[in-house]
Amino acid sequence: MRVKVLKRTKKGPVFDLLSRRAEGRRKPMPANLTPEAQAKLAEYSEAKTVEAKIRALEEFLKVAPKHKGAENLLYWARRRLAELKEQLETEKKKRKGGRNPFVVEKEGAAQVVLFGIPNSGKSSIIAATTRAKVEVSPRPYTTLVPAVGMLPFEDVQFQLVEAPGVAPGVGWVHRSIGLVRNADLVAIVLDLSLNPIKQYNYLKNLLEESGISLKKPEGRVEIVKERAGGIKVAIMGELVDGDVEDVKRLLRAYGIHSATVKLVGKVSLDDVEKAILGTNQYKPSIIILNKADVPGAEEKVKEFLEAYDGEAPVLVVSAKEGKGLEELGSTIFKVLDIIRVYTKKPNGPKAEKPLILKRGATVEDVARSIHSRMVEGFKFAKVWGPSAKYPGERVGLDHQVEDGDVIEIHYKG
Ligand SMILES: Nc1nc2c(ncn2[C@@H]2O[C@H](COP(=O)(O)OP(=O)(O)OP(=O)(O)O)[C@@H](O)[C@H]2O)c(=O)[nH]1
Ligand SMILES: [Mg+2]
């Protein structure tokens, strides 16, 4: 059996939630919504409470057009509604002191949700890589509430959470998707004793229908609603399929008449629409092809890699034999794009536990994550490690830190 870590960078088509219905049209516009439906959507995005959001979405679904053009929007609305109802349920239980097992509090450096069909080996992966006692069984639907284990990687730990297996028709699909939504990373677990390409497409589409994209966006849309002053649009990158007027029209169609819109990088009108609706969220991912020990697995791995056009790293493993999982921690670490920084007091030893920060973080981010007083009273910092020109270099708040840095912050206060 060959065990390998592969990274594919080939770009593929974007299977965007709302773009399919816009196919063939140069300038995608909202799904020909009636003013009534538009008003309900606007009400939804304005709503402050879960209850109000649910009410607005329910009313939107009543008045929304049922034609083909609105199909994806309807999908999104139904799924969002299911998630909101779930959230409401959780809040109610919390008030009563109960606990929703589908809400898993984060622990460790990051939360990683294992997402796959029943029996794909999610529990086996947790059993093989953590000390958690989880139930593994040839019977599908064994794990019905999220199973959790801590995966050690060097001096940090990642929290692995098994989302109960998803399949057409099972009742907890949106709960498992909700787990993915809240995670820092999703590990897509595919079963090599079945067809991995089919599984991947099914899982990816499920997430996309819920507004979760596995593809890193090329640009960013920021919308800040204002009380008055009309719509101002700043294109700081490229709007690939329209102009400023199209953006304004789109916002007005959703009942937004005053806002500041910033387009950064490469974006489309579809991206603007998703930003208005809040329907698109990028989730970093890795792919785990499990059961590499079964006959015919090698051929399926090859076929999968040929068909796969995403950018996530692919791990080929056998949880049963405990093979290929040595790279799991380092792969998660890389995809999360995080760094570890160790603080120290003057003349003291470096902290045992690192602070976890996003790559690109500065001394200011380090200081702020400890205490805002450190920023306000900041005098200077000393750095040892990869980002320092020499050991103990004196730096300011805007100095960028790197993985493995040790930092000593001097401040008044
Ligand atoms: N041959 C082989 N079988 C495996 C491997 N990993 C898991 N299995 C088997 O697949 C079955 C399902 O494994 P689980 O770990 O319970 O799968 P799961 O994804 O947690 O399943 P649910 O909780 O029911 O959704 C068990 O019989 C495992 O022994 C593997 O790498 N190779
Ligand atoms: Mg399981």
UniProtKB/TrEMBL annotation:
SUPFAM superfamilies with a match to the protein in the record: P-loop containing nucleoside triphosphate hydrolases, TGS-like
InterPro entries documented for this protein: Beta-grasp_dom_sf, DRG, GTP-bd, GTP-binding_2, P-loop_NTPase, TGS, TGS-like
Keyword GTP-binding: yes
TGS domain residues: 337-411
UniProt entry keywords in alphabetical sequence: GTP-binding, Nucleotide-binding
Domain of life: Archaea
GO MF entry, a single one: GTPase activity
The protein, known as: TGS domain protein
Source species of the chain: Ignicoccus hospitalis (strain KIN4/I / DSM 18386 / JCM 14125)
